[in-house]
Amino acid sequence: MPERDRPSFTLQLSQNKYLAPSDDRMDVVLTVRVGDAGVPAAGPPPTAELLLVDCSSSMDWPPTKIEAARHACRAAIGSLRDGVLFGVVECTSRARLVYPAEPPLAVAGERTRHEAKAAASGLIAGGGTAMSTWLDLARDLFGKTPAAIRHAVLLTDGKNESDHRGALDAALDRCRGRFACDARGIGDDWEPRDLQRIASVLRGSADAVLEEAELAGDFRRLVERAMGRTVPDVRLRMTTMPYSRLRFVKQVFPTEVDLTAQCHKVGQVLELPTGAWGDELREYHLCLDVETAELSRYEDRLLGAVTLFADEPVAEQQAVVGYLTDDLALSSVPDDDVARVTGQAELGRAVRAGWDAFERDDRVVAAREWGTAVRLATELGNAEILKRLGRLIDVRDDGTVTIKDAVRPRDGFSAVLGSTISAYPGAAEPAAAVTPPEPGGVPRECVHCGHKAPPTANWCGHCSEPFEPGAAS
Predict the structure, then answer these.
(1) To bridge 45 with a disulfide, which of 15, 148, 318, 428 should be the other Cys (CB 3.0-4.6 Å)?
(2) How does 392-416 read in b/e, with b if 16+ C-beta sit within 10 Å?
(3) Percent composition of the chain: helix, strand, coil (DSSP 3-state, to 5)
């Protein structure tokens, strides 16, 4: 490939190298950037797309759900570029390929897109829900294609009640590494943990459909994003030392996913496949167990090394270093990036704990946990989580939290699934802290919800919408 057609790869490492004798771990944040990953001169890589649509009987009530699914399928099909391999799967207690009528997958073009839209318009609700069969059929269909980029969108409105116990986990193990999958839940009677498991193992996103009218645009965006990925796979290779070993590795931006189980040994190193990439940035939290008794004081010791591979090494190797010291002023100060990602993990825990308490009808604990989440999200500048929490709670000017009278399950599911969404410095304007109005200042009134906020606030503490510059009232 000519040099001008090659994407650019950057690997950066952030850590506080100083360790106290009582420490037993080293935390580092890895930032991976891929740029210039446009369509190569030779054309885009072979790409395959599947739409997995829940057609169980519950999708028929209200009937707007199945119609929203049909419309979303047509929108996604219409966005497919010529040459993409694709199919539409009817998903109930079994999975059935409805377009094309049989394998192999169709090749996107004017005729096949028209035929596929007609097939999607004929989807009818009736039957149970067995997600393992949906994923297994997707794996089989993708396995019959030469595509390097393989992506599915899965939509469901119900719980996985037609599957045998453990069937979904077994199917996910079979599908791991075979394709990526974004999962969406529609309505108010599905299990967000199932969608989170699917997205975590299959390197996708999971979210709730808040309004049915939004589904078509979401499907289109997911398909277009998948088609924009032109680097089939990027892998992290991690080397440890006799006195260090991997405790865990997580993706922490744009979403948090524990990837430890997806590492495998290649000779003497651990390799982590990270899936397909376009022009994007991702962050990873790497934690090593360290036997500090094996380290000499007051000198840098190599704890490990990280490299980045596509078809070959594509970025300079980064060293994980440890420096054993008795100076607590050095070892007790966390690295800024490490502190940010650990704060994000605590934020996610508080959001999920609040929902668990709310489901138990323990509104006191729910309000306390969500109050903690508001504080952490404000400190981290995570406006997306503040927005999702704003559908569940009201934040008063003194910072106290009250739960709204009418909370839709889908709004809670949105918060739970959104709890893995991370903030990155510079990616968005930081959210303002929830504080009482300052003496002598004029409170700002939100034009979206009417909530009053401190005069220095940049974001509404109630609905999380940004204030217009200078819009104090």
Answers:
(1) 148
(2) bbbbebeeebeeeeebebbbbbbbb
(3) 30, 30, 40
DSSP 466: B
Query: What span, in angstroms and rounded, lies between the C-alpha atoms of 238 and 122?
Result: 49
Mean pLDDT value across residues 420-438: 55
pLDDT for 244-276, tens place per residue? 999 999 999 999 999 999 999 887 799 999 999
Task: Kindly state the tokens that stand for 116.
Answer: 């596929």
Give the span between the Cα atoms of 55 and 167, in whole angstroms. Answer: 19
pLDDT at 419 exceeding the cut of 60 = yes
Q: Average pLDDT, stretch 423-452? A: 49
Which ranges constitute the DSSP H helices of 56-190?
64-78, 110-121, 131-143, 167-175
- The mean pLDDT of 108-123, rounded to a whole number, is 98
In this prediction, residue 2 has a pLDDT band, given cuts at 50, 70 and 90, of very low
Q: Which CATH number fits domain 338-453: 1.20.140.160, 1.20.120.1690, 2.40.50.320, 1.10.760.10?
A: 1.20.120.1690
Residue 311: pLDDT band with limits 50, 70, 90: confident
CA 119 to CA 99: how far, in whole Å?
6
pLDDT at 260: 95
Helices of type H across 282-424: 328-331, 336-359, 363-380, 383-389, 409-418
In whole angstroms, give the CA distance from residue 302 to residue 319. Answer: 7
- pTM for this entry: 0.86
Domain coordinates in residue numbering, the chain: 3-40+231-333, 47-227, 338-453
How far is Cα 6 from Cα 38, in angstroms, rounded to an integer? Answer: 9
| Helix (H/G/I), strand (E/B), else coil: 365 | helix
Task: Identify the bridge partners of residue 393 per DSSP, sorted by sequence position.
Answer: 403
Question: In terms of DSSP bridges, do strands 444-445 and 452-453 run parallel, antiparallel, or are they unpaired?
Answer: antiparallel
Q: Closest by alpha carbon to 197, among 157, 226, 169, 162?
A: 169
Q: Which residues pair with 8 in a beta bridge?
A: 35
Q: 222 is written with which tokens? A: 């997911």
- Residues 43 and 1: their CA atoms lie apart, in Å, by 12
Which numeric CATH code is attached to 3-40+231-333?
2.60.40.3670
pLDDT band at 129 (very low <50, low <70, confident <90, very high): very high
Query: The domain 47-227: what is its CATH number?
Result: 3.40.50.410
Q: Token pair 């981290």 is at which residue?
A: 380
pLDDT band at 397 (very low <50, low <70, confident <90, very high): confident
